[in-house]
Amino acid sequence: MIARVLTIAGSDSGGGAGIEADIKTISALGGYGCTTITGLTAQNTLGVKAVHPVPADFVVLSMRAVLEDIGVDAIKLGMLTSEPIIRAVAANLPAGVPLVLDPVMVSTSGAALLPDGAITALISELIPKATLITPNLPEAAKITGLPVETQAQRIVAGKALLEMGAKAALVKGGHGAEAELTDLLITRQNVVAITLPRIESRNTHGTGCTMSSAIATGLAQGMGLEAAVRRARDYLQAAIATAPGIGAGHGPVNHLVAYTT
Hints:
The protein is α/β, with parallel strands linked by helices. It has a single domain (4-260), classed as UDP-N-acetylmuramoyl-L-alanine:D-glutamate ligase, CATH 3.40.1190. It has nine helices and nine strands. Helix 2 (56-69) packs parallel to helix 3 and helix 3 (83-91) runs parallel beside helix 4.
């Protein structure tokens, strides 16, 4: 049976991030995507104009509708909009299903997508349930309160996320200044550095959403964690390299790279 992935996240009217990026990614990698939308955004490649949260009780209803009928093999969490939504989602997550948590706090254009008050709920309610948490450097620093300038500091921050309850952490290096991009997959057993050439591009909108959805799809398909992360990293690298150049700002990646190259 096809691997089923539920993405619980916000909708991006520009199509490059959020639920829209998730569905494209899951489909491109051979999975079946289901959705629970936590918020609507009015945005394009230049930025987020407004966010309209979905009521928490409707978010739960949407989750249950999918879980009771279709079922899931993995879940990806993205933009959760508010503390009530975070707590409602956490209370209704099924046991035993791989969970990839992308702690979305700020958009590529700099718009705040998660109020400071909700971060406490994310730390207490969701990180302990995460199979993998996938913060970028600003998110890792915000959650842990630790510096992330050097690779050694990033490893310390990743281990702090494990102490908060996550089974594994992928501290992504995209916001770093190094010539090469290194993501650090940190578990209680070891640290794996995944290094690829840095692609200088303005077309990086939705990369975090894409990466986390790709990993969730791999886990849903029965891949091991490191294998799922490596496939996702290679997929995203190719998607950035072949980005269509849409919009005047931070454009989307090419989610359908496997079908257009």
